[in-house]
Design brief:
Elements: E1 2-3, H1 16-28, E2 48-52, H2 57-72, E3 79-85, E4 94-96, E5 101-104, E6 107-111, H3 113-122, E7 127-128, H4 131-134, H5 143-150, E8 154-160, H6 165-181, E9 185-190, E10 195-197, H7 199-214, H8 218-228, H9 235-243, E11 251-257, H10 259-262, E12 268-277
Parallel strand pairs: 1-5, 2-9, 3-8, 3-9, 4-7, 6-8
Antiparallel strand pairs: 2-12, 4-8, 5-6, 10-12, 11-12
Helix pairs in contact: 1-2, 3-6, 6-9, 7-8, 8-9
Length: 279
């Protein structure tokens, strides 16, 4: 099974040369970390998780770059587990891509069959489902950053519908099993924060969600999102991380909005990046 890119040329450049240049620009941006990280040679000595946004690189790439720059300080992964929201409404509520390769302009990356089987056996809600991933961008946009920094590794893509907290607990159990069974794993959880309100309101709402994420409080996150009507698209993905026993509390690296890029503060989308280490 080969998955070709569906947002190359829109969310990020469609040519390898321009894509590498754009990734470097994300790192050097005023909203980014301000430097191009060195590509690590050693493997991660323990597992890490990051939370990153998934909009077009011009809008959220610099915020995501903070997390990718941080992880390079610790090494490179052998396995990357990608967990992101399903925007298309197609496929299963927890859809796994279990074999083959994913392609971007920077090349191809193999799917870990072994990791897929471990997760499927550990999370009975999950199903093999290519349709859930075929037109979904939330995981695809992470892959060029990973390929640029780490070269060769394997991935396990997991696409998640909006689900109740009890389902996120089942996802977390499956992810914890992966963390126990595999070493040098980077878990990448993808979400954007509040959508299409003013910059002032969005930052206020985002900060309430960020507080619950930093406290590693998944039930609190569900509550504040519902009560404050925070239109966070990857709620279930992030809650799955917060339910994991394997990781400590996430640490905020960067928070910004699309208004910081466009200077139009009337309707913006919020973005944040975090990192957390295994316990």
């Amino acid at each position: 099974m080969k998955r070709l890119p569906v947002v190359a040329g829109s969310f990020y450049p469609g040519s390898a040369l321009r894509l590498e240049s754009t990734i470097k620009e994300c790192f050097l941006s005023k909203l980014g970390p301000g430097y191009i990280p060195n590509k690590p040679d050693k493997l991660l000595e323990k597992n890490f998780a990051i939370i990153v946004p998934h909009a077009g690189y011009i809008y959220s790439g610099p915020v995501a770059a903070h997390a990718y720059a941080q992880i390079t300080k610790f090494g490179k992964p052998e396995l990357v587990v990608l967990v992101g929201p399903n925007h298309t409404g197609l496929g299963s509520q927890i859809g796994i891509w279990d074999e083959g390769e994913w392609f971007t302009p920077l090349g191809s990356t193999k799917i870990s069959k072994d990791a897929a089987q471990v997760f499927l056996k550990s999370c009975d809600e999950a199903l093999i489902d290519y349709q859930a991933h075929m037109n979904e961008h939330s995981l695809e946009v992470q892959l060029p950053f990973l390929q640029y920094l780490f070269g060769e590794f394997e991935i396990l893509p997991i696409c998640v519908f909006p689900v109740f907290a009890n389902v996120c607990q089942k996802i977390a159990s499956g992810l914890d099993e992966l963390a126990q069974r595999f070493s040098s794993v980077l878990f990448v959880f993808s979400t954007d924060l509040n959508h299409y309100e003013s910059d002032e309101i969005t930052k206020q709402k985002d900060e309430m969600a960020i507080e619950k994420i930093a406290e590693k409080d998944p039930f609190g996150l569900y509550t504040v999102v519902a009560k404050q009507k925070i239109t966070m698209c990857g709620l279930s993905s992030v809650a799955s991380l917060l339910f994991m026993k394997h990781f400590a509390k996430p640490r905020l690296l960067k928070h910004a909005t699309s208004g910081d890029v466009t200077k139009d503060k009337t309707q913006v989308v919020g973005y944040a990046s975090f990192i957390c280490e295994s316990i």
